[in-house]
C-alpha cells in the first residue's frame, strides 16, 4: 500500500488537489492519511499526493467550510481527526466536477483535432 | 468559487478564524496530534509491508517531510499567519519604542498635544460658532431684524443695537403692539412668535436667587416645534386669561438642580419678582430657547405677565406702548415661498403697521425689515467669540502642521538610521512589503500612543477652554459635548503624516540595492536626499515657531498693556455685588428708599470702610448715557448731545478713591428735597466747557425735562465700560435725587474676602426683604479680569502654543544637527587630522544650524507679518508689526537654535581623528 517509485506516477495537476480531497471525503468520513490512501487507491496507484501539501489543503477546505472535522477512533483504536463533506462542500464538489468534466471534454476535443476536421 | 456562495464562505472563514485565534493552544495541539497520527499510521503500514520498525519510522518521516513546514502551511490555511506576523511586528515595534524612550516621548507627546489641542478647540468652536438650536428644522427658523438710518423711529429701545460702519442702525427688537398686529396674518410666514429674555429674582423652594426668564408669546412653542418633556407648554390661552396665565415652564437644568428631576415639580409654586407662578411643564434637555444655543433660560413664562414682572420703563405698559422697542420676533417662512418674497411681503406689512400704530414724529424714518437666519438664535455668541475663536483655530492649525513636521522629521531621521537594518533584513530574504509593514506597524503604534494622549487632553481641554472665556462668579455653563468627528479628523491627519513619513524610509530602502547599502556605509548612498528633506522640515518648524512666538508676544503685550492700565480709581479691596429689587414690589421712590436703607445698614458693618450703590459697575462692559444740555446752549435737533453718566451714592468718590479736583463731592446735605446737583469729570469739563469754569453751571439731563442740575464739583478721569478706549467724559448724579433707580451695583471698600462677606451681606439684605437676593458678588479686580478674559485666554493659549512650538523646534534642530554631525564624522576627522582647530569645527556646525535658523525665521517673519494684520483689532497698545516683539521673537528662536546645536557642535569638536577615520 506504500507509494510506488515516483517515475511511474503522474504529477497532480495544479489546483486539483482540493477537488480530489472533496471527492475522497464525499465517499465517507476519512482521516488525513485515509484521504491520501483513498486518492491513491481510486487512481489505481497512478496518482501520488505530496504528503506535505495534503494537510494545508485539508485545513484550507475546512477553513472555507467545505469540509468539517471531528475527532474519532481509528481502525486501530487511536484518536484521529476525521473529515466529512459539508452541504456547502457538496455543492462545491458538484459544481467543480461539472466544470472539470466540461473542461476535460473541451480539451480532449481540441487535442483530438486533426487537419481534416477543421 | 462556484457552488458555495461567497457570503457563506466568508462567514465560514470568519468563524473558523475566530475559533483558531481564540483557541490557539487547542489548534496547535490538534495539528501536532494529527501529524503524529499520520506518522504512526504510515509507520504501521510500512512495518506491515515488512520493514524493520526503525527503518519504517525513518521512511515515514522522510515521506512526510518537515512537520514544521506543514504546520506553517496549515496555519496559513487558517488565516493565522498574518495574525502571527502582526503580533511579531507589534512586539518588535514595542521593543524598538521602548529602547529609545526619548524619541517615543517626544513623538507621542507632540502628537498628543496637537490632537488634544485641535480636538478641544474645534469642539468648542463648533458649539460657539456653528451649532444650531436643538429644535426640529432649525435651519428654517428666521429672526426678524430691522435696519435704518440714524433718524430711525426706534428712539426708546431695550435690546441689541448696532451701528454699522455706514452709520446705519440695526436691531432685532420691536414694539409689542406692532408684533401683535403683524402676527395676526403674517405675510408669507407660517407664524411669528415673540420672546424676551431677562434676569429676574425668583424664590424657588425657599431660596431667593437670580434667574434668567424668557417671556414668550402663546404660539412660541408651536412656532419652534418644541414639546415639553413633562407637563404642558405655554399656550395661547395663557396669554388671554389672566387667571390661568400665572404659569411657568422650567428648564431641564433647573428641574435637575432644584427638583432632582422629580415629576412632583409640576404644580409647585415659584415666586418670580413677587408674582406667584405655578410650574406646568419641563422643557426637553437640549432646548435652550430661541435666543442662543449655549444656555437655556431657567423659566419660560407667558408674555402677558410682563406688566406684573418687569420694570415699567415708559408711561404705559410695554405690552400696549407702540413706541417702545423691546421684543424679539422669530418665525418660519411658509413652505414654497422664497425667502426674498417673504421678506418683501412682511416688510410692506411692517411699514404699514408701524405707520398705523407708532407715533411717527417729523424727521423719523421707518426702518427696513430683514429676515435673517435664526438657526443659531440671535448669534450674540458669534459677535463675541468669532474673532478669538478664528485666531485660535488658526493657531491650532499651525500647531497641527508643526506636530506633523515634527513627527515627519523624527521618523525620517530614524528611518535613515535604520537603513542598514532594512538592508540586512532584505538580504536575509524579507520581502519589501514585509519590511514596509514592520515600519508601518511602528508608525501606527506611535500614532496610537499619541492618539490616546490626545483623546485625554481633548476630553479635558474642551471643558477648560470655555472656563477661560467666561468669568468665575456667574453660573455660566457652556455644554461642550466631546466631538468624535473632530477627534477622528485630527487623528486621521496625524495618522496620515505618520504613515507617509514612516513609510518613506522603507520605500527608499526598497529602492536601494541591497548589496550597495551593505557594502558601503548606508549614509553615502542616501545622504543628499535625506539631508535636504530633513532640513526643509526643520526650516518649516522654525518658521512656524516664529509665527507662534510672535503671535504669543503680541497677545501677551496686549494683555500686559491692558492689565497695567491705570483705571483711574483704586481697585484694592474693592468688592462689587448686585441688588435688584423687583419693580412690582418696589415702585418708583420705594426702590430709592430700599437702597438708602441697605446702604446705611452696610456702612455700619464691621470691616467695611466705605460703601456706595451705583447704577453701573465700572469696567463691567455696561454703560448708561443721557442728554447733557448746559443751560444757555442751543438745542440742535438730531445733534448727538448725550454723555456717559452714572447714578451713584454720596460715598461714591471716597469708596472708589476718585479725587475731587475742584468744587465739592456729594454729601449728606444732598437729599431728595435739596437742589439737584452733579459732579463732572475732567474730560467732560474739557469737552463741553472749554475755557470756562464749569462749577456752578446748570444743565438739563433730558431735553423734555425742565429741571436744572447744578454742577458742584469736578473729579479726575476714570475708565468706564472698557479699557480699550480712553477714559470717556462722564457726569455723576446722586441716586437719592432720582425718582427711581431699580437695581444697583454696590461698591464696597472692605478688608473682608468675598467668601467671608457673602453670608453677612445676605443677612443684611434678607433682614429687609427675605425674597431679595444678593447676586454676582465679586471683587473689582475679578470684574476687570473678566472683561479681559478673552485677551487672557488668547495670551495663555498662544504662549502655551509658542512654548510648545519652541520645544518642538529645539528637538528638530538638535535631531538634524546631531544627525548631520554623525554623518560627517569622517569628514570632520579628516579636517581635524589636517590641522583644523576644534573651535573651527564647532563654529562650522553652529554656522550650519544658524543658517538654517535664519532662513526659517525669515520665512516665519514674513508669515507672521501677513497674519498679525488680521488680528489688529484684537491688539491693544501694540501694533501688529511691533519691532520689539519681532526682534525678541527672532532672538529667542536664534538662542534656541544655538542651545539645541551646542551638544552636537561640542561632539563634533571632540571627534578624535583616528577614531573617526577608522570608524567606517
Number of helices of chain A: 4
Give the biggest sheet of chain A: 3 strands, antiparallel
By helix and strand content of chain A, what is the structural category? alpha+beta
What oligomerization state is this entry in? heterodimer
Instruction: Determine the fraction of residues in helical runs of chain B and give it as a percent range.
Output: 40-55%
String of helices and strands of chain A: HEHHEEH
Instruction: Spell out the CATH superfamily of chain A.
Output: Winged helix-like DNA-binding domain superfamily/Winged helix DNA-binding domain
CATH topology value of chain A:
Arc Repressor Mutant, subunit A
Count the beta strands of chain A.
3
Q: How many beta strands in the DSSP annotation of chain B? A: 27
Q: Largest interface, counted with CB-CB under 8 A?
A: A-B, 36 and 36 residues
Give me some keywords for this one.
heterodimer, A: 118 residues, alpha+beta, three-stranded antiparallel beta sheet, 4 helices, elongated, B: 920 residues, 4 domains, six-stranded mixed barrel, 28 helices, globular
Task: Report on this structure.
- The complex is a heterodimer of chains A (118) and B (920).
- Chain A has 118 residues and is α+β, with helices and mostly antiparallel strands.
- Chain A has one domain (12-112): Arc Repressor Mutant, subunit A (Orthogonal Bundle).
- Chain A is 50% helix and 14% strand.
- Chain A has four helices and three strands.
- Chain A has helices spanning 17-26, 32-42, 51-63, 87-111; strands at residues 30-31, 67-73, 79-85.
- In chain A, strands 1-3-2 form a three-stranded antiparallel β-sheet.
- In chain A, α1 (17-26) packs across α2, α1 packs across α3 and α1 (17-26) crosses α4.
- Chain B has four domains: 6-79, no CATH class; 138-375, no CATH class; 382-564 and 789-919, no CATH class; 574-750, no CATH class.
- In chain B, the strands form four sheets. In chain B, strands 18, 19, 20, 21, 22, 23, 24 and 25 form an eight-stranded mixed β-sheet that branches. A six-stranded mixed barrel of chain B has the order 6-7-12-9-11-10.
- Chain B is built from 28 helices and 27 strands.
- The relative contact order of chain B is 0.10.
- Chain B starts with 5 loop residues before the first helix and ends with a helix.
- Chain B is an alpha+beta fold.
- Chain B is globular, with a radius of gyration of 38 Å.
- Chain A binds chain B through residues 1-3, 31-33, 51-53, 55-60, 62-66, 71, 74, 76, 78-81, 88-89, 91-96, 99, and chain B through 1-4, 8-9, 11-13, 16-17, 30-31, 33-35, 37-38, 40-42, 44-46, 49, 63-65, 69-70, 73-74, 76-79.
Amino acid at each position: 500500500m506504500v507509494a510506488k517509485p515516483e517515475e511511474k506516477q503522474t504529477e497532480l495537476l495544479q489546483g486539483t488537489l482540493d477537488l480530489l480531497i472533496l471527492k475522497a471525503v464525499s465517499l465517507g468520513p476519512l482521516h488525513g492519511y485515509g484521504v491520501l490512501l483513498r486518492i491513491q487507491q481510486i487512481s489505481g496507484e497512478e496518482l501520488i499526493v505530496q504528503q506535505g501539501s495534503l494537510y494545508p489543503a485539508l485545513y484550507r477546505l475546512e477553513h472555507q467550510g467545505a469540509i468539517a472535522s471531528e475527532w474519532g477512533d481509528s481502525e486501530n483504536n487511536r484518536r484521529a481527526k476525521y473529515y466529512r463533506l459539508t452541504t456547502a462542500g457538496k455543492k462545491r464538489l458538484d459544481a467543480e466536477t461539472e466544470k472539470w468534466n466540461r473542461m476535460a471534454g473541451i480539451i480532449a476535443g481540441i487535442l483530438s483535432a486533426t487537419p481534416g476536421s477543421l | 468559487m462556484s457552488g458555495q456562495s461567497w457570503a457563506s464562505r466568508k462567514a465560514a472563514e470568519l468563524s473558523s478564524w475566530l475559533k483558531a485565534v481564540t483557541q490557539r493552544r487547542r489548534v496547535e495541539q490538534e495539528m501536532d496530534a494529527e501529524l503524529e497520527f499520520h506518522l504512526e499510521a504510515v509507520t504501521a503500514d510500512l512495518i506491515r509491508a515488512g520493514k524493520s520498525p526503525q527503518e519504517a519510522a525513518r521512511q515515514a518521516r522522510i515521506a512526510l517531510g518537515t512537520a514544521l513546514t506543514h504546520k506553517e502551511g496549515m496555519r496559513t490555511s487558517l488565516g493565522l499567519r498574518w495574525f502571527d506576523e502582526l503580533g511579531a511586528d507589534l512586539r518588535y515595534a514595542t521593543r524598538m519604542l521602548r529602547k529609545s524612550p526619548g524619541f517615543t516621548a517626544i513623538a507621542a507627546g507632540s502628537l498628543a498635544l496637537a490632537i488634544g489641542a485641535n480636538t478641544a478647540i474645534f469642539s468648542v468652536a463648533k458649539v460657539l460658532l456653528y451649532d444650531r438650536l436643538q429644535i426640529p428644522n432649525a435651519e428654517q427658523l428666521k429672526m426678524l431684524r430691522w435696519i435704518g438710518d440714524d433718524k430711525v423711529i426706534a428712539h426708546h429701545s431695550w435690546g441689541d443695537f448696532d451701528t454699522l460702519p455706514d452709520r446705519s442702525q440695526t436691531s432685532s427688537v420691536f414694539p409689542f403692539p406692532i408684533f401683535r398686529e403683524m402676527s395676526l396674518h403674517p405675510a408669507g410666514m407660517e407664524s411669528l412668535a415673540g420672546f424676551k429674555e431677562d434676569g429676574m429674582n425668583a424664590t424657588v423652594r425657599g431660596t431667593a436667587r437670580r434667574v434668567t426668564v424668557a417671556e414668550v408669546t402663546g404660539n412660541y412653542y408651536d412656532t419652534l416645534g418644541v414639546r415639553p418633556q413633562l407637563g404642558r407648554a405655554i399656550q395661547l390661552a395663557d396669554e388671554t386669561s389672566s387667571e390661568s396665565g400665572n404659569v411657568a415652564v422650567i428648564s431641564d437644568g433647573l428641574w435637575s438642580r432644584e427638583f432632582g428631576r422629580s415629576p412632583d415639580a409640576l404644580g409647585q409654586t415659584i415666586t418670580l419678582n413677587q408674582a406667584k407662578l405655578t410650574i406646568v411643564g419641563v422643557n426637553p434637555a437640549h432646548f435652550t430657547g430661541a435666543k442662543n444655543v449655549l444656555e437655556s433660560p431657567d423659566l419660560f413664562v407667558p408674555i402677558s405677565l410682563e406688566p406684573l414682572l418687569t420694570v415699567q420703563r415708559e408711561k404705559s405698559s410695554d405690552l400696549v406702548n407702540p413706541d417702545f422697542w423691546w421684543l424679539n420676533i422669530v418665525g418660519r417662512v411658509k413652505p414654497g415661498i422664497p425667502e426674498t418674497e417673504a421678506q418683501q411681503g412682511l416688510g410692506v406689512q411692517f411699514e404699514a403697521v408701524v405707520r398705523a400704530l407708532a407715533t411717527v414724529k417729523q424727521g423719523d424714518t421707518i426702518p427696513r425689515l430683514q429676515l435673517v437666519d435664526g438657526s443659531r438664535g440671535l448669534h450674540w455668541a458669534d459677535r463675541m467669540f468669532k474673532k478669538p475663536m478664528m485666531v485660535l483655530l488658526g493657531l491650532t492649525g499651525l500647531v497641527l502642521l508643526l506636530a506633523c513636521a515634527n513627527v515627519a522629521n523624527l521618523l525620517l531621521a530614524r528611518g535613515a538610521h535604520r537603513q542598514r537594518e532594512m538592508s540586512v533584513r532584505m538580504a536575509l530574504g524579507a520581502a519589501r512589503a514585509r519590511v514596509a509593514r514592520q515600519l508601518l506597524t511602528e508608525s501606527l503604534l506611535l500614532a496610537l500612543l499619541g492618539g490616546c494622549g490626545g483623546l485625554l487632553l481633548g476630553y479635558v481641554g474642551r471643558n477648560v477652554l470655555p472656563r477661560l472665556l467666561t468669568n468665575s462668579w456667574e453660573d455660566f455653563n457652556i455644554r461642550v459635548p466631546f466631538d468624535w468627528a473632530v477627534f477622528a479628523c485630527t487623528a486621521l491627519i496625524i495618522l496620515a503624516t505618520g504613515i507617509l513619513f514612516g513609510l518613506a524610509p522603507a520605500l527608499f530602502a526598497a529602492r536601494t540595492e541591497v548589496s550597495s547599502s551593505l557594502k558601503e556605509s548606508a549614509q553615502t548612498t542616501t545622504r543628499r536626499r535625506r539631508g535636504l528633506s530633513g532640513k526643509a522640515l526643520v526650516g518649516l518648524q522654525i518658521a512656524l515657531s516664529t509665527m507662534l512666538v510672535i503671535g504669543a508676544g503680541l497677545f501677551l503685550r496686549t494683555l500686559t498693556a491692558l492689565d497695567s492700565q491705570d483705571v483711574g480709581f483704586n481697585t484694592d479691596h474693592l468688592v462689587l455685588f448686585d441688588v435688584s429689587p423687583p419693580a412690582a414690589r418696589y415702585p418708583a421712590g420705594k426702590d430709592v428708599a430700599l437702597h438708602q436703607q441697605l446702604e446705611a445698614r452696610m456702612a455700619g458693618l464691621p470691616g467695611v470702610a466705605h460703601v456706595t450703590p451705583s447704577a453701573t459697575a465700572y469696567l463691567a462692559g455696561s454703560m448708561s448715557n443721557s442728554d447733557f444740555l448746559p443751560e444757555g446752549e442751543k438745542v440742535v435737533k438730531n445733534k448727538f448731545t448725550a454723555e456717559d453718566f452714572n447714578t451713584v451714592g454720596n460715598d461714591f468718590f471716597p469708596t472708589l478713591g476718585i479725587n475731587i479736583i475742584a468744587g465739592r463731592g456729594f454729601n449728606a446735605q444732598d437729599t431728595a428735597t435739596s437742589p439737584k446737583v452733579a459732579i463732572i469729570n475732567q474730560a467732560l469739563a474739557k469737552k463741553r466747557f472749554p475755557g470756562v469754569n464749569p462749577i456752578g453751571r446748570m444743565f438739563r439731563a433730558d431735553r423734555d425735562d425742565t429741571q436744572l442740575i447744578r454742577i458742584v464739583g469736578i473729579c479726575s478721569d476714570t475708565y468706564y465700560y472698557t479699557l480699550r478706549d480712553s477714559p470717556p467724559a462722564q457726569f455723576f448724579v446722586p441716586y437719592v435725587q432720582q425718582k427711581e433707580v431699580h437695581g444697583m451695583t454696590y461698591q464696597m471698600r472692605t478688608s473682608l474676602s468675598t467668601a467671608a462677606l457673602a453670608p453677612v451681606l445676605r443677612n443684611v439684605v434678607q433682614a429687609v426683604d427675605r425674597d431679595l437676593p444678593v447676586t454676582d458678588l465679586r471683587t473689582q479686580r475679578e470684574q476687570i479680569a473678566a472683561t479681559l478674559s478673552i485677551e487672557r485666554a488668547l495670551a495663555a493659549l498662544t504662549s502655551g502654543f509658542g512654548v510648545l512650538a519652541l520645544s518642538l523646534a529645539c528637538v528638530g534642530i538638535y535631531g538634524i544637527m546631531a544627525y548631520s554631525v554623525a554623518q560627517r564624522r569622517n569628514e570632520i576627522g579628516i579636517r581635524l587630522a589636517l590641522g583644523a582647530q576644534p573651535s573651527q569645527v564647532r563654529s562650522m556646525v553652529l554656522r550650519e544650524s544658524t543658517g538654517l535658523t535664519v532662513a526659517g525665521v525669515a520665512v516665519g517673519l514674513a508669515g507672521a507679518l501677513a497674519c498679525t494684520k488680521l488680528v489688529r483689532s484684537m491688539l491693544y497698545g501694540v501694533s501688529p508689526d511691533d519691532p520689539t516683539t519681532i526682534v525678541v521673537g527672532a532672538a529667542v528662536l536664534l538662542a534656541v537654535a544655538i542651545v539645541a546645536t551646542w551638544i552636537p557642535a561640542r561632539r563634533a569638536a571632540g571627534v578624535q581623528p583616528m577614531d573617526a577615520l577608522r570608524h567606517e
